[in-house]
Every structure is written in structure tokens, then in C-alpha cells.
From TrEMBL:
CDD domains: CYP86A
Species this chain originates from: Brassica carinata
InterPro entries the record matches: Cyt_P450 (IPR001128), Cyt_P450_CS (IPR017972), Cyt_P450_E_grp-I (IPR002401), Cyt_P450_sf (IPR036396)
GO cellular component, one term: membrane
Database matches in PROSITE patterns: CYTOCHROME_P450 (PS00086)
Keywords from the UniProt entry: Heme, Iron, Membrane, Metal-binding, Monooxygenase, Oxidoreductase, Transmembrane, Transmembrane helix
Descriptive protein name: Uncharacterized protein
Binding site for heme: C449
Subcellular location: Membrane
Biological classification of the source: Eukaryota, Viridiplantae, Streptophyta, Embryophyta, Tracheophyta
């Protein structure tokens, strides 16, 4: 290498070093490394990632900025991540400037093959239209009744008998797996009125459930790779991309058969004038899109898949943490059992609604162990957050739901303690709804979880049965 090339390299390295020193002073969060930004820290702490993010947020007063690509121009754009758990910032993103913070192109690309333009993966007008249609359905009493029916059926016919058999034989049960199977059966019943019976004696394998799991895992794996890399893997047909492709084929085949049966049923119902079914798929099949046309099969498939993804793991994860917390807090367990007994002595009508302490214990579980521990949004235009943080267009904002429930500034000195009492009004003993931007486990603003009330109904019924 001649002298001029060496000098050029030294000059570039020195300029980079000066730039890097400036940017690392400007970024408030965890240590950043040349080129790799804060990725080494994230990888090192991957087993306790949410606790690590919480510690960083505590040290920085609720918001910090870091970069996952310490390269000039990118570090303050696509490579910049603002991490926050400040309720005012969260409200700003999820409500006040909702349009400026969509899920964004990177998120949509990752999930497009699996979830298409379904409600969970849509932004803008596509989301608005589906959200309105779905929101109307979620407020109907018949959907609540349908959820009640599916849950009670699964509990009575299979969940409780499995637990009873294990008790008689003194055998251990994997409660987490059992609850996951039960909530999968519940949500499939609600979404397209099919009893998948994965929660059954002998814990049978179900092709649709396994394909769904593989597709979820393969889609999530795309998140940890740069976009060009997973797209290349998809193009070359490598690794989990092969599994994704195969699983999507199985899922499509299964759902196409369900949709075709439902179409036949709807036709014969129209002819005979008999009342229709109350599952979500049938409800969407009777509706028309923005152009006044019936939905395509592909769209209907995605509707069903989006609802399954939204309502399956979320409830089962929350219940698993709930059972763990309750077994480690005997006083809370006693109070729950006493409440269930006294409500059942009084009435057998709308009894689940009266289980206030149980709802408080479930909410407290979700505060400490939210099923969705963090979420991310894309910044469309330059903006300033209420706490003064400048967020440039093209960057992303991650809000840590896990950290939100663990901040002394929001929940007080005892924020790490499991205390269902904080959800009960001292004045009238009724359930106390905390501000939705402080308790973000169900998201907040226009994109708040549509299944929140159904989830409470489902979780209370299962918890009370155990
Ligand atoms: C403990 C149980 C649950 C929790 C913690 C939970 C949490 C959430 C969260 C955090 C989101 C926002 C996700 C995002 O935008 O990235 C969401 C959205 C949603 N949830 Fe739930 N969920 C639960 C149960 C359910 C159930 C049982 C259903 C359906 C029966 C459901 C239906 C939905 C739907 C349709 C959306 C999309 C709303 C939209 O984007 O407009 N959820 N949920």
C-alpha cells in the first residue's frame, strides 16, 4: 500500500473516531460500540433482555436513545432506536400523534407472508377499515357468550378431567403447556367454530397447531436478522424460511377447507332462513369490503390467523405467570379462593363478573409480566416527544411494557411487589382501572386490544376452575 493510501485510511479512521466519540456522548443509553452500536450489549444480555432494558430506563429517567448501527447518516436515522416507558411519551405515540407512529415497513415485511394485511399487521386505511369492522363485532354480547361457551366446554370436557386424572395418579402436569392448548382450542372455536381438541387426554399432536407454531417462530426469527439477509434466505430457500413456506402451505390448506365448509353452510342458511353462526370468520364472511365486494379467501384466511395470533399465546402466557405468582403468594391464593366461594354461594348468574379480586390479581400479573413485553413503532416525520426527546423520521421507537410496570415513578416504592390490592378502590371495593398509558399490557389508544374483555372472561374462568 503506498503512503497516500495509508494516509487516507488513517484520516478516515480518525474522522470516524471523532464522529463516534461525539455520537456516543450524545446517546444516553447503554454503551455503544464502533459499527455495532449497542448490539453487543443486547446479545450479552439476551437472557435477561427485558430486565436489562428496565435497568437502562431507570438509569436514564424513563427514556434513552441508542443505535444498532454506528455508521454516519444511519446512526441518527434507520439505526437509531428511542426506548421509552414514560407514560406521557407512550400516550403521545399511541394516541396524540397516532398517525406519525405506525407499525412501519420493517415490521410489515417480517409478518407479511404469515399475517398478510390482517388487522395485527396492517397500518393506515387497511387497519382502520378492519379495526372498525372488528370493533363492532367485539362489542356484541353474542361474541362474549360464544367465548364463554368455548371456554367452559374445554374446561369441563377436557382441562379439568386431565388435572383430576393427574391428581389421582399423583403425576405432575405441565400447566403452561396445558393452558396453551386450552387457549388455542378456545380461540379457534371463537375464530372459526372448530374444536381443535389439542387440550385432550394424551396431549395429541395437531397438524394445524404445529404448523402455526412453526410459522410464528420462523417469522419472529426474521426480526433478529437484517432485512436483506432474511430476504436472501427466503429467495435461496434456506433455514427456517423453508419451514415457514411449508407451514404456510399446511395452514392455507386447513383454513381453505374451513372457509369452504362455512361458505356452504352460509348458502344453505340463506336459503332456509335459519339464524347464522357467531364465530368471527362467519361474521367477516357476511360483510363487504370498501368496494362493496365480498372478502377474498386469502383475506379471510388472514383474518382467522390474525385473531388466533392475537388471542392465543397472550392469554396462556398471562395465566402461566398468574399460577406461578399465586402459588408463591399464599395470602393472595387464600383471598382468591374465599372470593370464589362467597360469590358462588350468593349467585350462579354472571358470577365471573363479580370476581373482582381475581381480576385484580390477573391485572397485577400483567403489570409485572406483560404477555407482550415490548412493542415498536416507526417514526414517519421528525417529532419531539413530551419529555423533550427529538425523534427523527425513519428511526424507530420501542416502548417497554415490561419496564412500564416496574417504575417507582409510576407505581411507587413497592412497584416490584405482587399486590392485587392496588387494583381495588379503597372507597367502594370496586375494580380500579389505572390509566391505560401507565398500564399498557393491552396496548392503548386507537389500537387497544379488542379482545381485552374476552381475555379477562377467559382467564377468570380458567383460573377459577383450577
Ligand atoms: C391476556 C390476554 C391478552 C393480552 C395481554 C393482549 C394484548 C394485546 C396487545 C399488547 C395488543 C397490541 C399489539 C400490537 O399492536 O402490536 C393487542 C392487540 C389485539 N388483540 Fe389482544 N391481548 C390479549 C388477548 C386477546 C384476545 C383473547 C383477543 C381475541 C379474542 C385479542 C384480540 C386482539 C386484536 C384483534 C388486536 C389488534 C388490535 C389492533 O391492532 O387494532 N387479544 N392485544
Amino acid at each position: 500500500m503506498d503512503v497516500s493510501n495509508t494516509m487516507l485510511l488513517v484520516a478516515i479512521a480518525a474522522a470516524y473516531w471523532l464522529w463516534f466519540k461525539r455520537i456516543s456522548r450524545w446517546l444516553k443509553g447503554p454503551r455503544v460500540w464502533p459499527i455495532l452500536g449497542s448490539l453487543p450489549g443486547l446479545i450479552e444480555q439476551r437472557d435477561r433482555m427485558h430486565d436489562w432494558i428496565t435497568e437502562n430506563l431507570r438509569a436514564c429517567g424513563g427514556t434513552y436513545q441508542t443505535c444498532i448501527c454506528a455508521v454516519p447518516f444511519l446512526a441518527k436515522k434507520q439505526g437509531l432506536v428511542t426506548v421509552t416507558c414514560d407514560p406521557k411519551n407512550i400516550e403521545h405515540m399511541l394516541k396524540t400523534r397516532f398517525d406519525n407512529y405506525p407499525k412501519g415497513p420493517a415490521w410489515q415485511a417480517v409478518f407479511h407472508d404469515f399475517l398478510g394485511q390482517g388487522i395485527f399487521n396492517a397500518d393506515g386505511d387497511t387497519w382502520l377499515f378492519q379495526g372498525k369492522t372488528a370493533a363492532l363485532e367485539f362489542t356484541t354480547r353474542t361474541l362474549r357468550q360464544a367465548m364463554g361457551r368455548w371456554v367452559n366446554r374445554g374446561i369441563k370436557l377436557r382441562f379439568c378431567p386431565i388435572l383430576e386424572t393427574a391428581q389421582i395418579k399423583c403425576e405432575p402436569v405441565d400447566l403452561q403447556d396445558l393452558v396453551l392448548r386450552l387457549t388455542f382450542d378456545n380461540i379457534c372455536g371463537l375464530a372459526f367454530r372448530k374444536d381443535t381438541r389439542t387440550c385432550a387426554p394424551g396431549l395429541p399432536e395437531n397438524g394445524f397447531a404445529s404448523a402455526f407454531d412453526r410459522a410464528t417462530e420462523a417469522s419472529l426469527q426474521r426480526f433478529i436478522l437484517p432485512e436483506f439477509l432474511w430476504k436472501l434466505k427466503k429467495w435461496l430457500g434456506l433455514g427456517l424460511e423453508v419451514s415457514l413456506n411449508r407451514s404456510l402451505g399446511e395452514i392455507d390448506g386447513y383454513l381453505d377447507a374451513v372457509i369452504n365448509t362455512r361458505k356452504q353452510e352460509l348458502l344453505s342458511q340463506q336459503e332456509s332462513g335459519v339464524q347464522g353462526h357467531d364465530d368471527l370468520l362467519s361474521r367477516f364472511m357476511k360483510k363487504k369490503d370498501q368496494k362493496g365486494q365480498s372478502y377474498s379467501e386469502g383475506f379471510l384466511r388472514h383474518v382467522a390467523l390474525n385473531f388466533i395470533l392475537a388471542g392465543r399465546d397472550t392469554s396462556s402466557v398471562a395465566l402461566s405467570w398468574f399460577f406461578w405468582l399465586v402459588t408463591t403468594h399464599p395470602t393472595v391464593e387464600n383471598k382468591i379462593v374465599r372470593e370464589i366461594c362467597s360469590v358462588l354461594i350468593e349467585t350462579r348468574f354472571d358470577e365471573v363478573d363479580r370476581l373482582v379480586y381475581l381480576k385484580a390479581a390477573l391485572s397485577e400479573t400483567l403489570r409485572l409480566y406483560p404477555s407482550v413485553p415490548e412493542d415498536s413503532k416507526h417514526v414517519v416525520n421528525d417529532d419531539i416527544m413530551p419529555d423533550g426527546t427529538f425523534v427523527p423520521a425513519g428511526s424507530s421507537v420501542t416502548y417497554s411494557i415490561y419496564a412500564s410496570g416496574r417504575m417507582k415513578t409510576t407505581w411507587g416504592e413497592d412497584c416490584l411487589e405482587f399486590k392485587p390490592e392496588r387494583w381495588i378502590s379503597p372507597d367502594d371495593g370496586k375494580f380500579l382501572n389505572h390509566n391505560q398509558y401507565r398500564f399498557v399490557a393491552f396496548n392503548a389508544g386507537p389500537r387497544i386490544c379488542l379482545g381485552k374483555e374476552l381475555a379477562y372472561l377467559q382467564m377468570k374462568t380458567i383460573a377459577a376452575a383450577v
